[in-house]
TrEMBL record:
This is Kazal-like domain-containing protein. It comes from the Eukaryota. It comes from Xenopus laevis. The keyword Iron-sulfur does not apply. Pfam families: Kazal_1. GO terms for molecular function: peptidase inhibitor activity.
């Protein structure tokens, strides 16, 4: 029993460190799944990589290219 618990804790820690996508981020970005050309409306968002993106669409395109390792930290500039 202890072995299983330790394995689960280690697995969870590993997944957090690897920055695997959070399902809500993937669901959020699915709105922009078909967009190849994002609009130019400036509505900045901050990624977990501490980079400010011009809008959510551009953030999602970049996040998708990096296998969702970048997540949305908050709206507004970093």
């Amino acid at each position: 029993m202890k072995t299983v618990l330790i394995f689960l804790l280690c697995s969870s820690a590993f997944l957090c460190i690897m920055g695997l996508p959070v399902s809500s981020d993937m669901e959020y970005c699915s709105v922009y799944a078909e967009h190849r050309n994002c609009n130019k409306i400036y509505s900045p968002v901050c990624g977990t990589n501490r980079i400010t993106y011009p809008n959510k669409c551009i953030f999602c395109l970049e996040s998708r290219m990096k296998n969702y390792r970048i997540r949305l930290d908050h709206e507004g500039r970093c």
